[in-house]
Amino acid sequence: MHLLLVEDDAMLGESICDGARQSGWSIDHVADAQAARTALTDHTYAAVLLDIGLPGDSGLTVLRTMRNRYDATPVLILTARGQLSERIAGLDAGADDYLVKPFQFDELWARVRSVIRRSQGRVIPVFTHGDVRIDRARRVVSKAGVDVVLSAYEYRTLLALVERPGHVITRDTLHAVVYGSASTVESNTIAVFIHQLRRKLGEDLIRTVHGLGYVVGPPAA
């Protein structure tokens, strides 16, 4: 399991990372909101440990950006702000749990395990279309029983489509999901990802609806 820690306190961050590795987790550590957004774009994580008071931007902004992109990665907020209104704001923004500093590390890892278990229970664990199988809980994609390696961008594009099978997803929506709504990356990169997905998973998985966007058929019965 791979975690992301977003924490600007260097000493606390180092302690959490050491504890994570001793508990058998792998973990990436970033210290500000922009680095967090980049890490979440380039990688997939089992859970995010997110401080609210970050330099440059709030952790809640990072969280809202995740949820606006249909990123359902479980988020555990770590903060010194223990007021009820702050906890409510975090949960309303899409957090899965809230832990107030200072905390015991045993409780931290117990809560991480808990949010991961709950998140796996919220999603349909497997989507199938023909011989393509997408195990969202394990983040594994296969075709005809053989695992297929996708880039983080390709995987995020595919998930955005299978979240609403049978519905047309516009290019602008896919662009926002993959890169974030504020990205200046050229939107024609979505067409590149679609091409790569078709090459790896078959031409019939994703249909183009000209002038509108792309659609994946409904899950197999």
From TrEMBL:
User: What GO CC terms are in its UniProt record?
Assistant: cytosol; protein-DNA complex
**CDD domains per the record?**
REC_OmpR_PmrA-like, trans_reg_C
Single GO BP term:
regulation of DNA-templated transcription
- In this UniProt entry, the residues modified to 4-aspartylphosphate are 51
SMART domains per the record?
REC, Trans_reg_C
List each copy of the Response regulatory domain by range.
2-116
The feature table lists the DNA-binding region at 124-218
Phosphoprotein in keyword set: yes
Its main localization is cytoplasm
Among Gene3D superfamilies, the record links this protein to:
3.40.50.2300, 6.10.250.690, Winged helix-like DNA-binding domain superfamily/Winged helix DNA-binding domain
Recorded hits in PANTHER family, A to Z, give: REGULATOR OF RPOS (PTHR48111), TRANSCRIPTIONAL REGULATORY PROTEIN QSEB (PTHR48111:SF35)
Name by which UniProt lists this protein:
Response regulator
| Organism of origin | Pseudoduganella flava
Question: What does UniProt list as this organism's lineage?
Answer: Bacteria, Pseudomonadati, Pseudomonadota, Betaproteobacteria, Burkholderiales
